[in-house]
Design goal:
Length: 572
């Protein structure tokens, strides 16, 4: 269980700092709460054994991944292995209850705290079911409903919003659902052509590999380890292909879904249309448990890739910013070609890594980058530049294979094209950017245009501000593995107040990407869902009438509160 003190809850630390914590939740007497370990109503061992039998022996009691680092389980060699791999995706993907966001693990059985500190489950789920059949999901939901236990869906655990774990919860672990089915000619009322159906455990790299085998590509994410059918596509899903093909959710054809009432249904543009609409961009882990998704496939294409790096070493701060300003000025021209830009920078170094140009020639890419590189030359900034052409899409994105995880937290907003169309808007953007970076942030600056036209005018729940977007701009603060929760959450407050708020003022309506942004954005309903929120809430209430599915920033999430010990209670 979590330590019994207010400081034990990272969410409460942040909310208290922001003045948003409702202190009447410091006890749970009289509240309607999910059952919690230690409660008289918590299921007996016999009940858990019964569940295990009903799911064919696939129930797993959580042992946190950091347990070898603590007494009485301490194992020096095993602990060193955990520490060395803590920032690698596979460590957490292959674990039934671990997730890739240390913030939401809340220092529970942390491998970097003293071995004498007891290993407690904390914000890890209590149990996970290693799902292989739909009945395993159904039985788990039935058990959670019967015993009033928090329910969680986990695939890879790659989630910056904390939806893949929960104190006192039971989860369905979807990671081993790896079935893929290729259609040369998928036929439906609205589409006839190649398509790919994948189960919930299939990851982005596996999607790309399967499509390439058939001479095609799929609109998938940059990070190869992310689960495709879950939070990624349900959250909209930006891609290196977004400037030419829109969002991943623009290409959904059908979902197979297990509802929280135990039904196995299909959701498509002609069957359970409301559920299909919501799952296509309305947020993961909210309306039902997705078993599979079928998406359109597109012919493979040649891709040009460019990369450019330089540092601030040996140049003045103003000269360094002049170089970044010159880069910002050429971005509209780059995006006009249908390209995608991924850049990161702080006060010490700048990386454009990479520019991806689908069906864009190397000569075209070079011509739009030349004005910027000429400026770098005139400023006497040394830089490394590479330009390559690739016959297959997957070859161009192969460098997206070494993502560091577990040591940072995000903010982020969508910025519109109109901001960059006037000198006044551009100057305001640059002032804001410099303040953020000089204020200590590392920024992740994505240039893309997933317009209505690029997405084929798809009818779905993708935030409308994506259609006007020119950037997804994310301030990042890093933390050390040994940093205290108080330090980490002070930094999250900095992101929310000092970085995100100025960015919100630059946007149309404060829109943000529900998979990569500040998970504690006070305006989260409009930020992550915009004008779709009320419609999405009605879909939620229809398909999840007992509110089994929960996430802090998921539609309907404000109906619940996390109280002092980590348990989930109905908000008053």
């Amino acid at each position: 269980m979590w330590p019994v003190s207010l400081s034990s809850s990272p969410i409460n630390i942040l909310l208290q700092g922001l003045g948003l914590l409702n202190h009447k939740y410091l006890t749970y007497e009289g509240l309607s709460c999910r059952n919690f370990p230690g409660d008289k109503s918590w299921p007996t061992e016999e009940a858990w054994n019964g569940l295990n039998t009903s799911v064919d022996g696939r129930l797993i009691k959580s042992i946190p991944v950091g347990s070898p680092c603590h007494d009485p389980y301490y194992d020096k060699k095993a602990c060193e292995f955990v520490k060395q791999n803590w920032h690698q995706t596979e460590m957490h993907i292959s674990h039934p209850s671990s997730i890739m966001d240390a913030v939401f693990l809340n220092k529970s059985c942390d491998p970097f705290t003293s071995r004498e500190i007891p290993c407690y489950i904390g914000s890890y789920v209590q149990y996970a079911v290693n799902v292989s059949e739909p009945i395993h999901v159904v039985k788990t939901i039935e058990f959670a409903r019967k015993h009033n236990i928090r329910f969680v869906v986990k695939n890879t655990g790659h989630d910056y919003m904390g939806r893949s774990t929960g104190a006192g919860a039971i989860s369905v672990w979807m990671h081993h659902l790896k079935e893929k089915e290729w259609f040369d000619e998928y036929s439906s009322p609205g589409y006839n052509g190649p398509a790919l159906r994948v189960q919930a455990g299939v990851q982005g790299a596996e999607v790309n590999a399967e499509a390439t085998k058939h001479g095609h590509l799929i609109v998938a994410g940059e990070c190869p380890s992310v689960g495709f059918a879950g939070g990624y596509i349900q959250g909209g899903g930006h891609s290196t292909l977004s400037s030419v093909l829109g969002m991943a959710a623009d290409h959904t054809l059908a979902f197979e879904v297990i509802t929280t009432t135990g039904e196995f249904v299909t959701a498509s543009p002609t069957e359970n249309e409301d559920l299909y609409w919501a799952l296509s961009g309305g947020g993961g882990g909210t309306y039902g448990i997705v078993w599979s998704v079928t998406v359109k496939a597109h012919p493979d294409m040649r891709v040009t890739k460019a990369r450019l790096f330089f540092s601030s070493e040996g140049v003045s701060r103003d000269t360094y910013w002049e170089a970044i300003t010159a880069y910002q000025r050429i971005i509209p021209s780059v995006l006009d070609t249908g390209s995608f830009l991924d850049s990161t920078y702080d006060t010490k170094k700048f990386r454009m890594d990479p520019l991806i140009g689908p069906n864009v020639s190397a000569s075209t890419v070079l011509s739009v980058l030349t004005p910027w590189m000429s400026t770098l030359d005139s400023l006497e900034i040394n830089y490394n530049f590479t330009l390559t052409e690739h016959t297959k899409y997957v070859e161009a994105i192969s460098t997206y294979d070494n993502f560091d995880i577990m040591g940072y937290q995000l903010g982020g907003r969508l910025l519109p094209r109109t901001l960059f169309q006037t000198e006044e808007g551009f100057s305001e953007f640059m002032r804001t950017v410099r303040d953020i970076v000089e204020g200590g942030a590392y920024v992740w600056d994505i240039g893309l245009r997933p317009s209505w036209k690029a997405g084929g005018y798809a009818n779905n729940a993708v935030h409308p501000e994506w259609r006007e977007a020119e950037r997804m701009y994310n301030p990042v603060l890093f933390f050390n593995d040994e940093d205290s929760l108080e330090h980490i959450w002070d930094d999250q407050k900095r992101i929310s107040v000092l970085f995100d708020e100025p960015l919100r003022k630059l946007s149309i309506g404060g829109g943000a990407y529900a998979n990569e942004a500040d998970p504690f954005a006070p305006d989260w309903k409009s930020a992550f869902y915009g004008e779709h929120y009320e419609r999405l809430l009605s879909v939620k209430d229809k398909w999840d009438p007992e509110q089994v599915l929960y996430g802090t920033i998921a539609v309907g999430g404000d109906r619940w509160e996390t109280i002092e010990d980590g348990r989930l209670c109905r908000a008053v």
